[in-house]
Automatic annotation (TrEMBL):
Transmembrane segments: 598-618
The protein, known as: VWFA domain-containing protein
Cross-referenced InterPro entries: vWFA_dom_sf
Alphabetized UniProt keyword annotations: Membrane, Transmembrane, Transmembrane helix
Domain of life, per lineage: Bacteria
SUPFAM superfamilies listed in its UniProt record: vWA-like
Lineage: Bacteria, Pseudomonadati, Bacteroidota, Bacteroidia, Marinilabiliales
Amino acid sequence: MIERSKKIKQLPILAVAFDNSQSVQPYEASYNELTKALKNRFADDYQLEFWSFGSKVENTESFTGTDHRSDYGQILKTLKNNYLNKNIGALILFGDGIYNQGQDPENFASGLKFPVYAIGVGDTTRKTDASIRNVKTNKMAFLKNKFPVEIELKFLKLKNKIAYIDIENNNKSVYSSTVAITSDDDFKLEFANLEASEVGMQHYKIKIRPFDGEANLKNNEYEFVIQVMENKQKILMLSDGPHPDLGAIRTSLEELQNYEIKVLTGNNVPDSLSSYSLIVLNQLPSVKNVASKLLTKIKESRIPVLFLVGPNSMLAQLNSLDMGLRISTSSNTEEVQSAFDSNFSLFVLSDATKEIIESSPPLLSPFGNTELTPTMQNLAYQNIRNIKTNKTMMAFGADKGRKVGFVVGEGLWRWRLYDFQLNENHEAFDELIQKIIQYLALKENEDNFNVYYPALFQETDNIEFTAELYNDSYQLVNSPDVSLRIKNDSLKEFTYLFDRTDDYYRLNAGNLEPGDYTFDAETKLGNQRFTEKGNFSIVKNEIEIQNNQADFGVLFQLSQQSGGQFYPFKSYGTLLDDIKSNKQIAVQQFRQTLQTEWINLKLLFFLLILLLGVEWFYRKYWGIY
């Protein structure tokens, strides 16, 4: 073996992150000036790495100023993870301090292992302004129903003035109000109840009548769209008493707005069940409530049923219903997690949702073996102490012409909390619950071909669809092509073909211009032709124009909490001097020892061959043998 030692120098990393949103776009020249100065001053002393952030984070030097949102928290989180165990000296943060997406960036500042040197651009002067900061409303409403609209209003330097608020639907006034402004920095909430008078995508525009001296009139208007539907499906939830599992399911379904949910406890049962599309039974029949009359009504009605089975369920009574699942009776319970069955074909869950649900906290399930009828399919098996069993945890299917579902375990509410803790949203849990309810409540004649999509997109969103196609045996297939034709409100057409993914279809149509769109999806299976029609809207995303007043306070706090410093742009030369004089931003040196076998040294091998050849030649030449 031969051992060699090599001295390695590692330059400190100087990360430069710039706000690439619309509010910073006027300062492109300032950014270019700073970039040039950094390269001239530090190219030989530091490893410069540039990052762009706005609605997303990218490792790039290119400034466009086109992003519709600013997420300061995400850039700090990304850099913290990206430079873990690396020699990063400092972060130079270029922006106006206005963030309108993600978490408060100050939540991440104290945990950084490097100082933040912030450079502020923009106008911090408070100017006369009336603005609509945000509007909260339903995504869907139902014909002749009223829906709430919550309007967040901000007024600067308009004390003792009166603001006039108008709401229009298709250029027709549907609401007017006045707001008294009581201070020079006033925030108001305005609530309006509007009636959904027409079916389809309805456009609304909220306006604040302009004041004299306003510099920014773009934030005096706000547009939103809701989908008005003719009717909704009714879901009845029954339980012995209040339960967080029902609350979690109800909250997920309220996001869709096309379900009317009624929760009843105890022995309160409607006289008629015919108006309901689905009945959810939480641990009924139970030890305290056998609910024999209710169960008889349900069996006679043939309405789809979702059973939530838990420690209080009376298993003997449940088994006697003979509705697709039998569980051996026992008074004991055990904690179980889910293990999804890849052969399940009644509806499709994303891989991300499956991963999150499988790692979620365990449910409390009755101890005992399970037995499914052939018409039912396992969505998930019970995973006990990391061992997958053949016991059913979630199963769905049709029993004697009725759709039936089972969730064997109590504690679904924990899954919803875990999803938020992990991802800061409930998307995985909501997808699971919504797909379950959509499958059970959907009418049979609509089941063979389904297209799923949101009714409303932001202009920055990718327009995405998923589709499912079932054969006559109710098995998912994706062999035939599925085409999609989209028309905008100018009757311009866009034609697409779905991609096949596992057993279902997926389409990403990219970005489209704001406006109203209709679509037709079509496929053919055997001799049957299936079509699906729908509509959606794309609305402008103008949150960046709502507030043009720079917030250097945010940048100052980030700098102070991380051990850095804040500078207005005109003082960036001082920033460069301070970084240069910071002794903690230093080159790291270390030695690397390499061991190599002699036989792997090719140069030595050929040298030996050469010497042997020379020796052989001279021996032959001189006659030495």
